Amino acid sequence: MLPDRVLSLPTDLVLVVAILIAAVTMFAINRPRMDVVAVMVMVALPFTGVISVSEALAGFSDNNVILIAGLFVVGEALVQTGVSQRIGDWIAARAGRSEARLIFFLMVGAAALSSIMSSTGVVAIFIPMVLRIARSSRVAPGRLMMPLSMAALISGMLTLIGTPPNLIVHGELLRRGEEGFGFFDFTPFGLPILGLAILYMIALRRFIGGATVTSPDPTRRSLGDWVADFDLARRIARLRVPAGAQAARRPLSALNLGGPDRPVVLAIERIGGRAGDIIRPRPDIVIRSGDILVIDAADQGDTLDESCNRWGLVQLPLSGDWFTERARDMGLAQAMVPPASSLVDRSVAEVQFPAHHDLAVIGLRHGARAVSGALRDETLRPGDTLLLMGAWQDIRRVQDRRGEVVMLDLPGEADNVAPSARRAPLALLVVGLMVLGMVLGVAPNVHLVLLACLALGLFGCVTMTGAYGAMHMKSLVLIVGMLPFALALERTGGVDMAAAGLIALAGEASPRVLLAAIFLTTSLFSLFISNTATAVLMAPVAMAVADSLGISPYPFAMTVALAASAAFMTPVSSPVNTLVLGPGGYKFLDFVKIGVPFSAITLAVVIAMVPVILPF
């Protein structure tokens, strides 16, 4: 039986390697889609007899895949609560109009955060933020996504907990009776490599492939366009409450500004915790000095002047940019009255939109004709278009519910609005506790992430629709499809054969050459299996090489850890690369042409520095 088994091993290995080569070839030519290739791999591997169908599909229950999916949800929660928007605004403000500074701050921020938590998680959280920065800064997403993934990978070279391979190598040293690595033992190597990576990406940013600058949708109109279309500058007025005015310290209802033939209060601008807060107009709200009342003053004639004189209010102009500047808090939407709506044949005043939906009707069109005067007495007809004004969450609530009106269009600014901005502190609290739990190791990372997802949903920081929509299924399927290769290569003896060949070099080569060989072998394995699995396989091999030479195992262990993080060369080298593949619009060869040269740079730095800091 033994000879048969020995003879069968090369055949099994040849079949697995053939499938691997075929998959890599299809990745390289980008035909078919990468997630389709991953499914083909899962289907083909069981036919070799090396792994079963259940083992080929086991990636769908893999902890890392569930972890990545959960982190996508966490990232969506940070988007919906506006946290990522504020981080992006900070980065964009520091960068100004310089694309080079933008890449610098993005890579430094991603690397710093990833050094204390999962790099995969950081990338999942950063992706929507980077897409928003790309849109607002008119920068191609392809020029930012690869720097993001490279910085996240290099973060594994900064601290002991920066990436699982570091902990695996550290654990192998402890198992052998060595002291292991300290928390910052990786930093002297990671900082120079991060600096070189930033310079490298800035210098080559024009040669990075992927998605280009997207032109604005010509059919998507902005708030400024709608202000002009409905002539809101003439309809909407702003009344400031100066110090000592009669209106100050009175409830809004006492001003009697919402009765018949009186201006209708749409919103209140209040200078408070942050400039320009927008407050919903409630009858019991007490007016303060400095408040600005936003009203619908159409066709009020002298009534508006009389109200201003009586209460000491000062009229302010409404510029066309007023809505744009307050787009985070206040929005507009166009909605149609369907034939079966209960609003048909009722006046605008009768439908009491503010009472039921917290939205105000500030514009109306009968067919193509816009009503220029007062709206309250206008009778609504089937097919009429209403221009609604209010908070974005109220607009989206009407959009989701449907019935009385059908939402037709939202302005372009709606894409950058955080619908749950008031829950940002809760989102930060949940994510902070999740990160703290990861750092302290109080529970498995996947458990902590799932708990965070549940908490974010419970607190209203993310909707179920948003959570499911945030999961990049193409990236997840690609990761799942490539996971079975690790088991297949191990069972067929492919990994053992490579390790044995490397050990055979120990008696003939110098230690530096062996470091280079270990780096290259680790990088080669990382092309096809996860860098975590690569570290598990290569750490004992590297230390066996050190034992055969009778020298310190630390430089060899460090080389394995650094090489496992240097997975720059293909989109399947690391989940971090896979995540940015779709959003960046990359092809397989985009990673090859950028990643291979920098891998060579990293190799040179490692071979030059490791023996100096960690002597043989």
UniProtKB/TrEMBL annotation:
RCK C-terminal domain span: 225-313, 320-404
PROSITE patterns associated with the record: NA_SULFATE (PS01271), RCK_C (PS51202)
Membrane topology per record: Multi-pass membrane protein
Principal location class: membrane
Keywords annotated in UniProt: Membrane, Repeat, Transmembrane, Transmembrane helix, Transport
InterPro entries registered for this protein in UniProt: Cit_transptr-like_dom, DASS-Related_Transporters, Na/sul_symport_CS, RCK_C, RCK_C_sf
GO cellular component, one term: plasma membrane
Subcellular location: Membrane
Molecular function via GO: monoatomic cation transmembrane transporter activity
Span of the signal peptide: none
Domain of life: Bacteria
Regions crossing the membrane: 12-30, 36-58, 65-83, 103-131, 143-161, 181-202, 426-443, 449-469, 476-493, 513-542, 554-574, 594-614
GO biological process: potassium ion transport
PANTHER family: BASIC AMINO ACID ANTIPORTER YFCC-RELATED (PTHR43652), RESPONSE REGULATOR (PTHR43652:SF1)
Protein name as catalogued: Di/tricarboxylate transporter
Organism the protein comes from: Rhodovulum adriaticum
